[in-house]
Amino acid sequence: MPKINKNAFEQSTGSPIDQAVNLMSQQLSVTTTPVLMCGVNRKINIGNFENIDVYAGISIPLDGVSFGDKEELRKTIEEAAAYGFSVVSKETGDRYTMIKDSQQGK
To answer: Which residues make beta-bridge pairs with 36?
Structure first.
């Protein structure tokens, strides 16, 4: 019988996504230069009621941008986020397709 989680904290503790984000955060040193972290997760049903998580993440340093010019910071973050999420979405999509194809014997 499946385990029933008691609360949201219990559900989120120790997930692969939390672990990946925590690891990425630990690798970033404290800096005065803004850094944007983007990540995408996909859940893949591999059969027999089993799922696996595929996660890709990227951290993008925003060089040459200061916290002083809020409008420039906002514009740079928007552009970096569009680029970052595009990259990691493609990577998780490629892995998703590879895993699904291998399950179907292609």
So the answer is: 60
Q: What is the pLDDT of residues 50-76, one digit of tens each?
A: 777 888 888 888 888 877 888 988 999
Would you list the domain boundaries of the chain? 8-103
Instruction: Copy the structure tokens of residue 76.
Output: 């740079």
Whole-angstrom distance, CA of residue 66 vs CA of residue 22: 25
84: tokens are 């970052």
Is residue 39 within 8 A of residue 53, CB to CB? The reply is no
Pairwise CA distance, residues 60 & 24, whole Å: 12
Q: Percent of the chain at pLDDT above 70?
A: 67
The residue written with tokens 């803004």 in the block is 34
**Alpha-carbon gap, residue 100 to 47, rounded angstroms:** 10
Contacts of the segment 24-30: beta carbons below 8 A, 24+ positions apart:
24/57, 24/59, 27/59, 28/59
Query: Are the CB atoms for 84 and 95 separated by under 8 Å?
Result: no
CB 103 within 8 A of CB 48: no
